[in-house]
Amino acid sequence: MDAAIVMGFDIERASAAFYDSLFEQFPQIRRLFGDLGSQRRMFEVALKSVLYKSNNKAELERYLRLLGEKHKMLGILPLHMEQGMYSFIQALRAGNPDIDEETMARMVEIYNRLVEVMGYNCKVPIMV
Ligand code: HEM
């Protein structure tokens, strides 16, 4: 099922939808973004982490901690991460309009987990 989440997922559409929604919520963060490549990497990280198995989990966690530091240095707050969940959900639907509710719930869990390992203490309980 994990691989099925990633297969056929339109990462370009998802990334575009994620940042459209994020910038709508927080116009002031737009200026923090350099190039479109770094935006795309956000989703790649989120999706790849779905496929990571326990043998390279430590490596992934180390990377995510550093990524969290980078976000904090840029001024990204827990509030942004919390609201980012809603953008993430919209992005998942954009990336795959046929996404089922079970996969959606699993991706929401993954988002929460990523944010937690990145060092943001803001789990969002959410119904999808
Ligand atoms: C699970 C949540 C998130 C993940 C996994 C994630 C991941 C990433 C990654 C991989 C990058 C590129 C880093 C690089 O270029 O080395 C990035 C950059 C960035 N992210 Fe996130 N991100 C998340 C949520 C957010 C949210 C909610 C915001 C703001 C509301 C945000 C703002 C930024 C900014 C400002 C950059 C810098 C872009 C640049 O340097 O051009 N991120 N993120």
Task: Kindly report how far apart the N and C termini lie.
Answer: 19 Å
Percentage of β-strand residues: under 5%
- Helix and strand content put the structural class at mainly alpha
Helical proportion? 55-70%
| Backbone CA Rg | 14 Å
CATH superfamily: Globins
Question: How many DSSP helices?
Answer: 6
Low-confidence stretches: none
The number of distinct β-strands equals 0
Bound ions, cofactors and other small molecules, one mention each? protoporphyrin IX containing FE
Shape: globular
Helix-strand pattern: HHHHHH
- CATH topological fold name: Globin-like
The averaged pLDDT comes out at 82
Tally of individual domains = 1
Per CATH, the architecture is Orthogonal Bundle
Largest sheet: none
CATH class: Mainly Alpha
Task: Please render the helix and strand layout as text.
Layout: H1 2-6, H2 11-25, H3 36-51, H4 57-74, H5 78-95, H6 101-117
The protein binds protoporphyrin IX containing FE.
Can you describe this structure?
It contains 6 helices and no strands. It is mainly alpha-helical and 128 residues long. It has a single domain (2-117), classed as Globins (Globin-like). It binds protoporphyrin IX containing FE. Protoporphyrin IX containing FE is lined by residues 22, 26, 29, 32-35, 38, 41-42, 45-46, 67, 71, 74, 76, 80-81, 84, 111, 114-115. Residues 22, 26, 29, 32-35, 38, 41-42, 45-46, 67, 71, 74, 76, 80-81, 84, 111, 114-115 line the site of protoporphyrin IX containing FE (HEM).
